[in-house]
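Memo to structure team: turn this sequence into structure tokens by end of day. - J.P.
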Amino acid sequence: MINRLLSCIFHTALASAAFAQIGAHSASAQAVTNSSPLLEKAKYLQRDLIDKHLVDGLYVSIVPAAPEGTKLTHTVDDPGNVIHAGVWTGRYLAGVAYQYAVTKDPAVRKHGGDLLVGLRRLQEVTGKPGLLARGYVKGHGPVEGFERGGGDSAHWHQGQGAFADYRFYSDVSVDNFNAVLFGYALYFDLAADAEQKKMIAFDVDRLMTHLLDNHYRIIDLSGKVTQYGHVGVDPDPSRDSYYANGGDSELRRYITGTEWHPGLRASLMALPDLLIAYHVAANPEPAADTRPYSPERIARVNHSSEGQAYEALFNLIRYENDPKLLAIYDKWVSDLWDLNWMEGNPLYTFMTVALIPQKWEPVRPGVANAAWMKLPHAEESMQLSIETLHRYPVDRVLRPVMNSIRSDIELSPFPDRGNGKQAAKPVPIDQRPLDNEYAWKGNPYAVDGWQKPAVTSLQFACDDPMVAWFSDANGRAYMTRDGMKSWTEVSYALMGGKVKRLAASKERTFVLYADTDRGTAITRDGGMSWVEVKNDANDKPALAAPAFATNDPHKWVHAGEVDLRIDESGKLVRRGGRGSELAWMQGWKIPVATWMIETPRGIFAGGPGGAYSTVDGAGWKEAKLWREDETGAADYLHAYWMGRYYGFYRD
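Reply from structure team:
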């Protein structure tokens, strides 16, 4: 029965298609700022996404920060978070579906075709029909940021045959699977031409065949279920004992005593239309948190899981017509709404008001239905959500943020799920730390993020002014060969050893010693390889390492005409007249200091906001010691075009 219903929805057939990449928008981005009109921001952010975040039709959310217009290649030598690419490509495809529905621009449909090719490649690169990869990059060899430096993983594989030039990551999970189907469904309904519909139908049929043949489990290349590979609960009674015994994943959390009750959400993740939910809807749900709204309850919300629930419910309600089932699903959405209507999350708001108190589609794109205003808090939430889009930052670099020291932000007495500080009220999106991949899954109460570790040592080569090294409190060491313009981590070869301090040779350019938690090590090639400094029979070092400098940031150091130190409150101060101490942190992004080092090149100091240097005490200059990453704007584009489609605002 399920297969027949799937056939009715997606009309399974095979077609192959190749689509050219969408061209750059013609609008100039020179003047685009956070306060620019929403459409201008959308054009700028999409152009940036296409330039930097696409690898053969796959959207990679996090990439190294690069100037506007830079074309990133995404090979095994380029760091980027590709192991979640399937999730965000599916959600971005949904945004492109709304974009085409509003604009009817052929270039947008062609761009959607590129994404469909990328999602198809996620299946084909695994060599197992219906099994998705989590993501891929181009090239051969260990992947930067994942496999290098002893970071081997059984889930990285090299493609075969036509895909031999791709390296991919397996172990796909329920959220990857669900997001891909979510994007397929919306693009199928709103944007796909006849050939694209055939392509989607064929790919969905393969995905569902794999899932149903394996009892609602994703079976990896190893022949075992993936770590989070239970997409739903098999309704076949013969499988009851399997679930009662805990299955082979996290299903044990649904067991109560000697009976098992599959949670409704476990079934909601099965399909966009989620027909399996009909079988389990009458079963008891595990005890839910029904306490009234409170800061304590808010502190424990998993916003990422909320996004997955919205994703599943949205298409489920769109496709369902049974009033009894819709009443159940509407209650689920209402429970979500009670906790997030005040957060200014445009995607959650737009989804909710399109579903309850009654589901609706615009009579044509851009025409709103006033019935949504009957939903409690709908108008207030809509105002907050549109304000969020207006404040959405166009600078997507993941920069340090430390709002916890601001006196104008009230902190919650309850920590977040990770035991970090958070605000009592949602923080505006342009003031809180950027979420690493998708803003709408992030914690809107977050106050701090992306803070830099303390620097524990800074060393310069004896005869090459362009070469230097530093170590940080994370136990890592880095080298620059271009005068601090860029840095390369050189602690990989220590095989997990944590660097405490470094000391450079006074005679040899690339000879460097490291004081580690495993003893002293030496490198003769700047850090590409290390060997242990062993002691002789008299317990004396065979290679005499120079003394490792110790730094006391609270002691006075001299720079030019001023004396500096860090006081007990974390302020960097300079000595004034009559023994006074004056804060001296002009230009610091976060006025908190945790370290200071005196070097032949001047004083270096810093804290959570980064590193700074001064030679003569006349002023601070920022020192770029760590690579910066940036995230894409698929989240903005999804919400913006959805809001345009439903007519919630006009540009």
